[in-house]
Write a structure and sequence with these properties.
Layout (H helix, E strand, L loop, with lengths): L26 H8 L14 H11 L6 H8 L8 H8 L7 H23 L8 H13 L13 H17 L9 H13 L17 H20 L10 H17 L1 H9 L5 H9 L8 H14 L3 H14 L2 H4 L4 H9 L8 H22 L6
Helix pairs in contact: 2-3, 3-13, 5-7, 5-9, 6-7, 7-9, 8-9, 8-13, 10-11, 10-12, 10-14, 13-14, 14-17
Keywords: GTPase activation
InterPro entries: Rab-GAP-TBC_dom, Rab-GAP_TBC_sf
GO molecular function, one term: GTPase activator activity
Length: about 375
């Protein structure tokens, strides 16, 4: 669904974030936010009080206005409200507050029932394809978010392995595909934050138990289902969705910044050499983890149209380096594009790219319509 307004608040403006809790949250977490404690891997630029009040007002309505929530969330969701807001944006929770607790309990039980059915079975009872899928997940999970140590705790690794394997088995059209492990990490961090308050760097896996992990896994599973629903052809055989997306990014850059496009072409740099990973992992691997989470606010606010927005975002992301790109030759271009210097990026820089992406979409969406193949 296209939004009418995409204006971010001035990221340089300083505000205090009040301890306003949503329907699902923890007092400890809210206190940490209110006190101005650094959130590290979950850090967030301060959000103006009037925006926090708008979120709380929407979430406290008997029936949440999802269109208004999407528009508000596009420019970022307050840290303590993210779990509840993301569940709503994903359609995991219904907008009627009276049904939310019951729905959450039912969906979590549905996932818990899948674990013994699909995962906790003897290896010899799996089909050949299931064994191959299991092995691929086992190989990929340890590679997940190498810069986030908490995700490498044994209980978290097992949780990732379980939910990714189950997702793959229940979605046979694509099955599990490399890169999906990256897509689940923002959900995992946000839903764990309800149980592990304070900076992510200080989280201890010792406080987690099977009941908590199954609830968090369930939330991640159902939200991942919704996210991938709009990009299913990114992960089917030959990945036609990704191929189309990379082609459209290339054409968009050619239309709006011919100098960059011509230089890449003259240096024999093909967009597939760098943009395939961008599209496959939705730019998660190109950004610090805290910014990937902020990016998810916008993706989820876009709803079913987020894959379309990804085209403009990828082009804007590439063009944020345009002056440097046009000075590099082939080998340095490849190295640069595969290891972009974003480690020190702040939300302000991401917000600028998001704003540029919105402008590109406003300017070129009609011109791009003929490029939508299939």
């Amino acid at each position: 669904m296209a939004m009418e307004r995409r204006v971010s608040e001035d990221p340089s403006t300083s505000y205090d974030v009040p301890a306003n809790g949503g329907p699902i949250g923890t007092q400890q977490q809210q206190a940490a936010v209110a006190s101005g404690a650094s959130q590290g891997l979950l850090q967030q630029a301060a959000i103006p009080e009037h925006r926090v009040r708008k979120f709380n007002k929407l979430l406290q309505e008997a029936v949440v206005d999802l269109d208004a929530l999407r528009e508000l969330s596009w420019s970022g969701v307050p840290l303590s409200l993210r779990p509840q807001v993301w569940r709503l944006l994903c359609g995991y929770l219904p907008p009627a507050r009276s049904r939310q607790a019951q729905t959450l309990d039912r969906r979590r039980r549905e996932y818990a029932d899948m674990v013994p059915e699909y995962y906790d079975i003897p290896h010899e009872e799996r089909s050949e394809d299931e064994v191959a899928a299991y092995r691929q997940v086992v190989v990929d999970v340890p590679r997940t978010a190498p810069n986030v140590p908490f995700f490498h705790e044994p209980i978290i690794q097992e949780s990732l392995q379980r939910l990714l394997y189950i997702w793959g088995i229940r979605h046979p059209a694509s099955g599990y595909v490399q890169g999906m492990n990256d897509l689940v990490t923002p959900f995992l961090a946000v839903f764990l934050s309800e149980h592990l308050p304070g900076p992510m760097e200080g989280w201890s896996a010792d406080t987690l138990n099977e009941s908590i992990m199954l609830a968090v896994e369930a939330d991640c599973y159902w939200c991942l289902c919704k996210l991938v629903e709009g990009i299913q052809d990114h992960y089917t055989y030959a990945q036609p969705g990704i191929q189309r997306a990379v082609f459209r990014i290339k054409e968009l850059v050619r239309r709006c910044e011919a100098e960059v496009s011509d230089h890449l072409e003259s240096e024999a740099v093909d967009f597939i050499q760098f943009a395939l990973r961008w599209v496959n992992c939705l730019l998660v691997r190109e950004l610090p983890f805290c910014l990937a989470i902020r990016l998810w606010d916008t993706y989820l606010a876009e709803g079913t149209g987020f894959s379309e927005f990804l085209i403009y975002l990828s082009a804007a992301f590439l063009l944020s380096w345009k002056e440097r790109l046009t000075r590099l030759e082939f080998q340095d271009l490849i190295l640069f594009l595969q290891r972009l210097p974003t480690a020190d990026w702040t939300e302000a820089q991401l917000e600028r790219v998001l704003s540029e992406a919105f402008i590109l979409r406003s300017s070129y969406s009609d011109a791009q319509s003929h490029l939508r193949l299939g």
